[in-house]
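Thread title: Can someone regenerate the structure for this chain?

I was given the following input by a collaborator and told the matching structure tokens would be attached. They weren't. Posting the sequence so someone can regenerate them.
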Amino acid sequence: MNAHLSTSSLIKATLASFVAAGVILVTVVMPAEYNIDPTGVGKALGVNVLNVEEPAAPKPVKAIGDNEDAVTITVPAGRGVEYKLAMNQFDKVTYEWLTDGNAIYVDLHGEPEGDTTGYFESYTIATVPEMKGSFTAPFAGSHGWYFRNKSDKDIQIQLLFSGKYAIQGLKQ
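Best answer:
Regenerated them for you:
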């Protein structure tokens, strides 16, 4: 091996390696990795078959059926709790709830499935001792009631609901 190459020989070797790398990039790497084949050499060599995208797997549908449930929730004095249902878009829930006589703050709302921004949409906000109605989920996700007890004693809530959902339950 010759340890004393001239500067011009090193420059020629460097330029030759850049040209070779560019040719390999355009004719082999781009067709194989990115399915970009501007010269057609990737197809002729058969390397463009390496970049076959897998079809997206179908999203599993949640097993959400027609249900009818009743729960009793205790909201501790000065605290809040949530009771949530998982629902698909356009599924409907009919509900009725009542306290043991005391008014309580309620926010009936939903959060889109997979959202990480903290977004939620309120459907009803009130401070009352009872409520009934229905809602249709505008998007797939978690939907339910946030109860806030601003009094100095615990409040019991009887919650009755029916429709298409899966119970996520109580969150504190």
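The longest helix spans residues 7-34.
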